[in-house]
Amino acid sequence: MPFTLPAAASLFKPGQSGTIERFTNEHLAGKLLDIGVRPGSRLRVVRKSPFGGSWYVKIDRQCLALRKKELACIMVK
Amino acid sequence: MHHGQIKATPVVGLVGNPNSGKSSLFNILTGLRQRIGNFPGVTVEKKAGMLRLPGLPTVELIDFPGAYSCYPTSLDERLVVQELTNPAGDLFPDAIVYVADITKLDKHLLLFTQLRDLDLPMILVLNMADLMESDGLTVDIPRLSKELGVPVLPVSSRDHRGITELKAAITDLLRAPDAFRPRQPFYEPGASARDVLGELRRELPARNDYHALLLTHHAPWLKHIPERTRHKVQTARVRHGFHSLRAQVEETMDRYNSFEPIVKSTVRHAGDTNSYSDRIDNIVTHPIFGPIIFVVLMLLLFQALFAWASVPMDLIELTFGTLGETIRTTLSEGWFTDMLVDGIIAGLGGVLVFVPQIAILFFFIAILEEVGYLARAAYMFDSLMQRFGLNGRSVVALISGHACAIPAIMSTRTIANWKERLLTILVTPLTSCSARIPVYVILISFAVPQVTYLDGLIGLQGLAFAGLYFLGIASAMLSALAFKLLLHTPDRSFLMLELPDYRTPVWRNVTTTVWQKSKTFVLEAGKIILLISIVLWAASTYGPARDMAAAEAQVEETAVAQELTEAEAADLLASERLEASYAGHLGKFIEPVIRPLGYDWKIGIALLTSFAAREVFVGTMATIYSVGSSDDEFRIRERMAEERNPVTGEPTYNRATAWSLLIFYVFAMMCMSTLAVTKRETNSWKWPAIQFTFMTVIAYVGAMVVYQLLA
C-alpha cells in the first residue's frame, strides 16, 4: 500500500507540491484558514525570495507569500 | 436597529476581504463626495460617502477596512469586528453590501457566512464580473442566491455593469430589511462552546447565539463590553475550559465545509486562469532580476518625481510670491499686512509647494498598488526587512518617505504587527524627503568642489548628493535595528501576503487616491505649518522694544554714513531687526550649544526656524543675510560665500561647517507636521517625543564629529 508520511512544507524545494493535511501551530492555523489555506488544498512551492526567508507559494489557484515559520507549520503529503 | 421605520440617515456598510475590489466599488458609488477620517478612538482610516437613492433619505455608505474573518489579526480587521458586533454603536450598519471577488468565491465567502450568522440584512456582490467572459468563468447566479439566501449581483468596477441593479437592490434592502434576513444559520456553535454560551448567553448584549459566541471570543478587547461583563466572560471561559483558538479553527473548518459544496455546484472555472500572471512573476519576482527591476523602477520614479514636479512647484512659488507682493503694495503698511504676507501667505505657499510631489508620488504608488506590484515588492524584501525588525510592507513607507514622510507614515496601517509598524513610523523620517533638497543644493556647493570626471558625466557634487540619500536610508535601517533590540512586544508577526493577479489599473481609483492624499496633506499638515509660520513670523518681527529701536537707529546712521541706496538700507534694516528680535536673542542664547558644530548665532536662527519645517532654512538665510524677500538660491549662495567670521576673517561657510550642516539636516527631526502625524498614528505623545529626541541626538553628535574632524 503506497503511504507517504506528511512533511512540513518548509522542507519542500521549489517546484515540489502536495496536499495539505493539517497544521501544527494553532496561532498560525487560525490566520492561514482565514486567508483560505486549509486541509485538502493543493500546495506548490514556486520559488524562494531574493534574500531568502520567504517563499512564493501557490495554494489551489491563489498565489501567496509565506515566511519559513508559516510554511513550517503546514504538514503536506 | 433595522426594525420598523427607516432611520433619518440609514447606514450601509461595504464589507469584504482585502483585494476584493471593495474600494473601487466605493469610489464608483460615491464619486469624490467622500469623507476620510478616523474611526472613533483608533487610527484606522474611515471612508464614508453619501449615496442618493430614489425614495430614500440620503444613505451613508461606509467603506469598512478589508477583513478575512471575524477573528482579526490587524488593527483594521479588529475595527470591523468591533463595529459589527455593537448594535448600539453609531456605525452599526442597517444593511451590508458584501463584496467578493468572483474568481475567489471559495475563499471570500468565509466572512460572508459569519456576518450572515450575525443576523445582518445583506446583499452579496460578485465583483470583477468582467472576468466572466475573458476567463471562461461561469456562475449560476440564481442558484447561488437561493443556496445562500441573499440577493446575488454580478458587478464590475471596470465596465460599470450591474451598478444600477446594485443601487436598486440596496433600496429594496433598506425598505424591507426583514425580507433579507436568514432563515437558518450556516454554523451552530459546537460542543466545546455550548457550555460557556449556556452560562453567558443572558449576560451578554447579544442578538443571537453566534453574536454571543463572538463576544465570548473577543470580550477582552472589545470596547463596548463593560469591564464587569468582561470579567464574567473571563471566569466563564476558564471554568468551562473554552479554548478560543481551537474553537476558531473548528468553526472555520465547519464553515468551509458548509459553503464549499455551494461554490462547487455553482461556479465553473475553465482551465488555469493565472498563467498570464505566473509568466510575469517568473521575471518580476525572480530571485536575481526581481530586485534589479525594483531598483530600476524606483530610479525611474524619482527621476519622474523631480522632473515633473519642478515646473508646477516653480509656478506655485511664483504665484504666492506675486500674491504677497501685490498685497504688500495694495494694502497699507502695518503689522497686519506683514503678518498676512510673511506669515500666512508665505506659510500657505510653503504647504502647497509640496503638493505636486505628493500627488506625483501617490500617482505612481497607486498605479503600482493597482497593478499588484507592491505586494510583490513586500514579498521580495520581507526577509531583508525582518532582519532590521521591519516588515516587507515597510518597503512602501521607506520609498514614499523620500518624497514626504507624512503620507509614508500614513501608509504603514497595513502592517499588522504593532512593533514592526511602530519601527517603520519611527525611522521613515530619516529617509531624505524632498524638503531637504533645497538645503542640500545650497550647502553642497560649499562642501564639495565643482569637479567632474569622464567629460562631466560624473560630478563630485552629484556623488555627494547621492551619498546623502544613501546615508539617510542606511541610518533608517540601522535605527530600526537598534529599536528592534530595545523594544519587546509579545505580538506575533505575519507575512501571509496575498499576491493578487496582475491587472491593468482602474484609473478612477488612481485619481481618487491622488486627490484624497493631497487633500489630507494640505488639511492636516497645512494647519500646523501655517500656525508655526505665523509664530515664526512674530518671533522674528518683534523683539524687546529697546533693542529694536537701537537697531533701527544704527541702520539709519550707517545708511547715511555709507550712502546706501533705499533698497540696500531696507535689506540692512531687515537683517539688523532680525538680530534684535526674539528669534535673534534665541539664536544668540543657543550659540554656545551649537558652537562645537561650527555654527554661529545666525545659523542658529536658521536651525531653530527649520524645526518647523526644513525648507524654511532657505527663506531664513535670505532674511538673515538681508537678500531681502527674494528666494533666489544663487543670490543667497553668493551672499553666503562672502560671509566672514568677524574674528578670524575666514569664510563662515567653509568645508567643515557646510558638511556639519549637511549631516545635521540628514538626521535631525525638523518637521512639525511629521511629528503631528506620528502622534496621530501612534495615539500618544511618547513616540513623537522619542522620535524627535533620537533623531536630533544623532544629528547633533554626527554634525559635531564631522566638524571636529574636518575643521
Automatic annotation (TrEMBL), chain A:
Q: Kindly give the SUPFAM superfamilies that the UniProt entry links to this protein.
A: C-terminal domain of transcriptional repressors
What GO MF terms are annotated? transition metal ion binding
Q: Which residues form the Ferrous iron transporter FeoA-like domain?
A: 7-77
The question of whether Iron is a record keyword is answered with: yes
Q: Which Gene3D superfamilies match?
A: 2.30.30.90
Keyword set, alphabetical order: Iron
Tell me which domain of life the UniProt entry assigns to the organism this sequence originates from. Bacteria
PANTHER family linked to this entry: FE(2+) TRANSPORT PROTEIN A (PTHR42954:SF2)
Question: What protein is this chain from?
Answer: Fe2+ transport system protein FeoA
Taxonomy of origin reads: Bacteria, Pseudomonadati, Bacteroidota, Saprospiria, Saprospirales
TrEMBL record, chain B:
Broad class of where this protein is predominantly found? membrane
List of residues binding GTP? 16-23, 41-45, 63-66, 127-130
Q: Name one GO molecular function term.
A: metal ion binding
The record ties this protein, via SUPFAM superfamilies, to:
P-loop containing nucleoside triphosphate hydrolases (SSF52540)
- One short Pfam name that applies is FeoB_C
UniProt keyword Coiled coil, yes or no: no
Q: Keyword set for this entry?
A: Cell membrane, GTP-binding, Ion transport, Iron, Iron transport, Magnesium, Membrane, Metal-binding, Nucleotide-binding, Transmembrane, Transmembrane helix, Transport
For this protein, the record's CDD domains field holds:
FeoB (cd01879)
Q: Which GO terms describe its cellular component?
A: plasma membrane
> Which spans are transmembrane here?
288-309, 344-368, 422-448, 468-487, 656-677, 689-710
- Where along the chain is Mg(2+) bound? N27, T30, G31
State the superkingdom.
Bacteria
Fetch the InterPro entries from UniProt: Fe2_transport_prot-B (IPR003373), Fe2_transport_prot_B_C (IPR011640), FeoB_GTPase (IPR050860), G_FEOB_dom (IPR030389), Gate_dom (IPR011642), GTP-bd (IPR006073), P-loop_NTPase (IPR027417)
Bilayer topology = Multi-pass membrane protein
Where is the protein situated, by its record's location annotation? Answer: Cell inner membrane; Cell membrane
| Domain FeoB-type G: residue ranges | 9-176
* NCBIfam families, sorted: feoB
> What job does the chain carry out?
Probable transporter of a GTP-driven Fe(2+) uptake system.
Its family remark reads: Belongs to the TRAFAC class TrmE-Era-EngA-EngB-Septin-like GTPase superfamily. FeoB GTPase (TC 9.A.8) family.
Q: What is this protein called?
A: Ferrous iron transport protein B
